[in-house]
Amino acid sequence: MSVSSRFVRACNKQSTDTVPVWFMRQAGRYMPEYRSVRARHSILEICRTPSLAAEVTITAAEELGVDAAIIFADLLLPAEPLGLKLTFTAGEGPSIEPALRERRQIEQLPDSLRGELGYIAESVRLVDRHFGGKLPVIGFSGAPFTLASYLVEGGSSRNYVHTKKLMYGDPQAWTLLMDKLCRALMEYLTQQVEAGAAAIQLFDSWVGALSEADYRRFVLPFNRRLVEGVQALGVPAIYFSTGTSGYVETVAETGAQVISIDWRVDLAEAWRRMGHRPALQGNLDPVALFAPQNELRAMVQGLLEKAGGRPGYIFNLGHGILPETPVANVKAVTEWVHEYAHAGSI
Amino acid sequence: MSVSSRFVRACNKQSTDTVPVWFMRQAGRYMPEYRSVRARHSILEICRTPSLAAEVTITAAEELGVDAAIIFADLLLPAEPLGLKLTFTAGEGPSIEPALRERRQIEQLPDSLRGELGYIAESVRLVDRHFGGKLPVIGFSGAPFTLASYLVEGGSSRNYVHTKKLMYGDPQAWTLLMDKLCRALMEYLTQQVEAGAAAIQLFDSWVGALSEADYRRFVLPFNRRLVEGVQALGVPAIYFSTGTSGYVETVAETGAQVISIDWRVDLAEAWRRMGHRPALQGNLDPVALFAPQNELRAMVQGLLEKAGGRPGYIFNLGHGILPETPVANVKAVTEWVHEYAHAGSI
């Protein structure tokens, strides 16, 4: 079996020669090669320059020996073609102006990106050409709730008060916003698939701020629509969220081929609660990568045992790699995961 | 049935005339009376002055008409008698110096508070005397993990990297730290119960940073010990955590009479997963209090229906009341909850 098919086969719950593995934010600040590019360019410059975005994407995937290369991009890129101002301040995180708090602002929002994020598709094209089909490229975007929360709050948030006030206080405006974001994201993801992305991951990083009832009412229908749109393009959809361990069954109703879970739920238990219908991705605590190797190895072995050799398991973290993570540990985990299938232990 | 017994009876899963209700952080910044005291005193001054702490505790409970008064205090007060420096900076949150990163520091930590937090017991005494047994007083402390995480990180944290590095890298030092904190907290809680606290809540606000496996290995035994200690004093223990929706069954193994859950899991589902053994407290999203009253009322009604009239349900939020919360909505919720038992609807 070629490496190229291992990851995509697992997405589709087909058997594989060994467990595929990649890491969210595998091209990031923990890696010296990335830091050296970042020393010369801002995050937005890297995103907007396909040769740079492709370089950091390729370097990370080759350095680690993982089974997929996720394109380097930022969740907030769609803010600009939507007519909003996006800035990153060191230490403060992203800022979006103006924050969308009024129905009038939402009504005026375009519902098309008019192809303006073509530079990301170009990055996908460069990476895919580099690997010549030997390693699948993962395209991605934020899921509608997570993107909406940034736009409504004007940046990161702790309690999502403005987002929920809009949801509860003007459900029609909320629906209009989510509907426009779905259309815009679908254009963006279509560009990426046409450029060669072999799978699409939707990052719903902050949706765990919601109760199950609110998730079902205000978010799930839009996630379903976006997942169906991705699937209609002929590639698998991976739906990632955090903080949703209490309602993984509902999250699985998005219909995504792969559900990516955080580390706050037992892997075997989560898969059982989903009736083993979707493929499962996850769920090592990113901080486990700071542990001594004997402890780390035991944790990796534990997850592989919980996955139990079932087709459709993709090894990953429960969230992105943190800065300061020892690169040697990330490489060691990749090797252990690949070895496991052959020996049943690492 | 007197109001005095409604809350404690529910803690013990006995039947009550109506559903008892109180709110975490009910004496807080959202309330004008509290802000006026805060304008003249720092948080630490209020905590350390029993007449002030009693005043804000009593004012909030009487203003809202709730079924219990939780004493005004801060989770981090035990840091000082442990020999550490505690400061609060506006906008930055708490800071603890020095952060505990080395085994040597943990070995030198005292394992007794030597009665130094007696001012909190005095606050409990003043509040209990004020209500003359007509309203139960809830004492509290941080649970050992949450307190440990503050001491190891030196304040608030996003990823708890230092805490987990200690757990994984030097499990013996971790055990020693948790052991010392259990002893110190037990002294502190004993003082509060002797002063009249009718129940004790343990706040494990940040334990949801852990996987189920890590929770079971590094935290659960100490929570069990502290819960047993509280129960031996003859009052019910309430164990509160957030981010643990994926393993509420394991959380219930603390043995606390009451498990307080956040809003990221369906109330009926969580109680079912715990086999309905403990009493249940929660779990309205604190941001729901910002919703229009018709939406808010529907959410409250929904929770009461999920509790299904089962003895042992205590209405509360899933976490503390947020600043800016409209006081009128908090009062309205209290009234709706009390009305429900009689009519079956609100």
How are the elements arranged and paired?
The structure is a homodimer of 346-residue chains.
Chain A: H1 3-11, H2 32-38, H3 43-48, H4 50-64, E1 69-70, E2 85-89, E3 93-97, H5 103-108, H6 118-131, E4 137-142, H7 144-153, H8 161-169, H9 171-194, E5 199-204, H10 212-218, H11 220-232, E6 237-241, H12 248-252, E7 258-260, H13 267-273, E8 279-284, H14 293-307, E9 313-317, H15 327-343
Parallel strand pairs in A: 1-4, 4-5, 5-6, 6-7, 7-8, 8-9
Antiparallel strand pairs in A: 2-3
What does this 3D model show about the protein?
The structure is a homodimer of 346-residue chains. Chain A has 346 residues and is an alpha/beta fold. Chain A has a single domain, classed as TIM Barrel (Alpha-Beta Barrel), CATH 3.20.20.210. Chain A is built from 15 helices and 9 strands. In chain A, the strands form 2 sheets. A 7-stranded parallel β-sheet of chain A has the order 1-4-5-6-7-8-9, with helices on both faces. Chain A has a two-stranded antiparallel sheet with strand order 2-3. In chain A, a hairpin with a 3-residue loop joins strand 2 and strand 3. In chain A, helix 7 packs across helix 9, helix 9 runs parallel beside helix 11 and helix 14 packs across helix 15. The interface between A and B is large, with 38 and 39 residues.
